[in-house]
Amino acid sequence: MHCDLGIINGPLLLFGGPYSNLQALEAVLATARVRTIPEHNMICTGDVVAYCAGALATADMLRASGAAVVAGNCEKQLGQGAQDCGCGFEEGSTCDLLSMGWYTFARSQLDDTTRKWMRECPDIISFHHQGARYAVIHGGVTEIARFIWPTDPEAVFMQEWQALESAIGPVDHVIAGHCGLAFVKDTSRGRWINPGVIGMPAHDGSMQTRYGILEQGAVQLHALEYDVEAAVREMRAAGLTQGYERALRSGYWPSEDVLPLALRGASLASG
Hints:
It is a single chain. This protein is α/β, with parallel strands linked by helices and 271 residues long. It has one domain: Metallo-dependent phosphatases (Purple Acid Phosphatase, chain A, domain 2, 4-Layer Sandwich), CATH 3.60.21. The protein is 35% helix and 19% strand. The chain contains nine helices and eleven strands. It has helices at residues 22-34, 55-65, 73-80, 94-109, 112-120, 154-168, 228-237, 244-250, 266-270, and strands spanning 2-7, 12-15, 42-44, 68-69, 124-129, 132-136, 173-175, 183-186, 191-194, 209-215, 218-224. It has a six-stranded mixed sheet with strand order 1-5-6-7-9-8, with helices on one face. Helix 1 runs parallel beside helix 2 and helix 7 (228-237) runs antiparallel to helix 8. The radius of gyration is 17 Å and the shape is globular.
């Protein structure tokens, strides 16, 4: 499903992966208010519910905010009542094994209204900004849970660009999520923009998470401060102690399995 938001020429707040982190969502929505960014100028790249403890509350708050949300693999899977997150982790990897814990918890927290909302999230969002057409997807068009990294070769981006344009027509720039890292990459077709995620740190040793502001045709990536300790307490109270609660404090994901070698850092930092 494709949703066209029309022309939006004011500042846009872009973010991904709330990941059931209610405190981080509260912080990014507060940022929008401070910057006087209206609700229809906020876009989320999906995975509203995942690792943290506030599954239903986070989904309810995001729905009430009026932000546009593209479907992530978590929305697809939870909306359909699937048995796993469909995150694209390699079978048997640490990330795959850890997902069994948080996904089961998240699935148990959601009500039918939330699942219906998740099923209705579009696969692609598009809009025009300062004369350019943007498309918003989750991971990739060829595969919703495709991990696309800043270190990937041009061919990866071009494959997705072609699939996207086959679906909705010409696009000048792409906004995507899923991989968890914020980056802006200039390609031969335009900019590939990943504003990062707000629910988990950027695997850089900092507790801050990431979001982006699109304004006057340019994107700036920003660090997000939020109440980390409250999020950790809620995760522990819910029994979500597979390692993601430590990641909120350490700034490093509980496993680097999913990352390309060039982007790994936790082992180096602890060595």
